[in-house]
Amino acid sequence: MNRWWGEFLIDAQLPIRLAKELTAAGHDALHTEDLPKGNRTPDEELADLAAREDRVLVTKDSDFVTTFHLQKSPPKLLLVSTGNINNDSLLHLFLANNIHLEDALSENDFVELSRTALTIHE
């Protein structure tokens, strides 16, 4: 299997450090803070940007699950369903699962990361 070195768009509920860590791991990662409207960028604009730039939208916002299923927007979604978690633990979770996330996202459009599992949704 070819390793996927995709691009990410990190939503406002997740730390800027996540974008930095993903970049350090070889990915192109933007955080909403990097956008002109920052963390106030509307969800529709985030989904449009993710589609235009072929980015996986990484979010905790379950509203994106609905638009994904109804409109296939954003085209690729990584839902973080860890509940309340400190930033260090969240970053560790991403780094510990980096290869599994890459593999899952190379083959699937909707993946969910929880504290204990990586779930692929149809």
Describe the structure.
- With 122 residues, the chain is α/β, with parallel strands linked by helices.
- The chain has one domain (7-121).
- Helix content is 39%, strand content 20%.
- The two termini are 20 Å apart.
Number of helices: 5
Structural classification:
alpha/beta
Radius of gyration over alpha carbons?
13 Å
End-to-end gap: 20 Å
Mean pLDDT: 93
Order of helices and strands: EHEHEHEHHEE
Biggest sheet statistics: 6 strands, mixed
Major sheet: arrangement of strands = 2-1-3-4-5-6
Strand element count:
6
Shape: globular
Q: Give the count of structural domains.
A: 1
Poorly predicted segments = none
Strand content: 15-25%
Helix content: 25-40%
Task: Give a summary of the structure in a few sentences.
By secondary structure, the protein is of the alpha/beta class.
Provide key terms for this protein:
globular, 6 strands, alpha/beta, 20% strand
Q: Which helices and strands, and how do they pair?
A:
Elements: E1 7-10, H1 16-24, E2 28-31, H2 43-52, E3 55-59, H3 63-71, E4 77-80, H4 87-96, H5 98-107, E5 110-113, E6 118-121
Parallel strand pairs: 1-2, 1-3, 3-4, 4-5
Antiparallel strand pairs: 5-6
Helix pairs in contact: 1-4
